[in-house]
Amino acid sequence: MSKELHKEYFQQQNAHNLDENPSSRKGSANQNICLSLESDMDCRLMINGQDQGQLDKNISRMFFLPAGSHLINAQTCDGLIEDEWVQALKNEDISFFIRMAEEHGQAQSVFLEQRDELKGPIGIECWTITEIQQAAIAAAKEAGTTHIFRDGPDAPEMVVIPRGSFRMGEVSNKHKVTIAHSFAVSRYPVTVAEWRQFVASGGCSYSPADNGWPGDNLPVTNVNFVHAQAYVRWLSTKTGKNYRLLSEAEWEYACRAGSATEYYWGDELGKNNCNCQDSKSEWSCRRASPVGSFSPNKFGLHDMLGNVWEWVEDAWHDTYNGAPTDGSAWLSDGAVSTLGNQEWRVLRGGSWMIDPRDARCAVRFMCDQLNRNAYTGIRVARTLS
C-alpha cells in the first residue's frame, strides 16, 4: 500500500475520533485513551492523515483516541527528517517521545555539504566535448559494442551514454545524481517506420493515427505509456537484449549531455535549434518534424527537446524529495490518477506545440498513462551490463 493510500485508510477508519479535550472522556461508553507525544525538536504532526499543527520541542501534547491502531507522522519543520509509525492503543494511556535531533543534525550536515557542492559544476559538467566523446567510446568498448550501434534492422539506432554525475533539476533546486552504469539511448525518438515494423511482426495490433502527416521518418505519436512498454518488451524479445524506457534521471542526464544551461545548446531558445513554439523552425506549432532535423547534443542525441514529449519509466512525484540518486527509476508511492485508478507517469522534453519555457532540460510533466495524442511519442534505452 502506498504512503498516500496508507494515510487515507487511517483517515477514513478514524474520522472524527481525534480529540485533545480530556473532558471528552467523561460519560462515554467507549472511553478514549490518552496518547501523549513529546519531541526533542519542533516538528509538524499528523495523526491518521489529519494535520495537528506544530509539536514544540520538549512540550508534550495529549490526544484522546479510541482503542486501535493510529498512524502517526512527525516531520521536522525544514522537511529534512520524517518519522512515521503505527501506534497501537489498548487499555492504558501511553506516552511516546519522538527522537529526531541526532538524525536531523547528521542530515543537516550532509545537506549543507551537498548545497556547497552544488554551487558549481560537478562530474560530467566539467568535461570538454572531447572528454565526453572519449568517455562514450570507452564505455562502448567496455560493453563490447561500438559508440553507435543497432541490434538488427528492426531496432532503433542506439548511442552509448557513459556513466557520471550531474546536477539535476531547476537552477533554483538542483540535486546531485550519479548515473551508476553506462547505458544506451535511441539516437532519435521511435519513428513511424520503426513502429510499423513492430505491428508487422505481430508484436502489436495497434496502428497509431498519423495526424495527416505523411512520412516514415516522423516520430510515432498517439502512443501511451502502455503502448511504450509493449514496444520495449517486443524489442527485448526480438533482440535478446534488455530494452526499456529511460528513467527520469537518465533522461535529463542524456538530454543535458554535460550542459548546465536551460537548453542543451545554451540559456536562450535561439533560432532553429528545436521544434517548439517560437523556435523559428518550419514546423513550429504546425506538426512534428522529421527526426534528426536539428543539431544533436554533445552525446549525439537528436530531438531531446521539442518535437514530441517522451514517456519515461518513473511514476509521478511532485518533488524530488526521496528520489533515487543513482539514476534508477522512482517507481514507489507515485501519485494516482482518478481516471481508471492508474498511476500518473512522467513526460519529458516538450513538443512541437509547447511554450519554449516548457521545452527546457529540467521541465517535467505529469500525465495519465493511458493518455495518447499528437504530441507524445517515445524514446528507448538499453541496459549494457
Automatic annotation (TrEMBL):
GO terms for molecular function: formylglycine-generating oxidase activity. Pfam families: FGE-sulfatase (PF03781). Residues 155-382 form the Sulfatase-modifying factor enzyme-like domain. It comes from the Bacteria. InterPro entries: CTDL_fold, Sulfatase_Mod_Factor_Kinase, SUMF_dom, SUMF_sf. This is FGE-sulfatase domain-containing protein. The lineage of its organism: Bacteria, Pseudomonadati, Pseudomonadota, Betaproteobacteria, Nitrosomonadales.
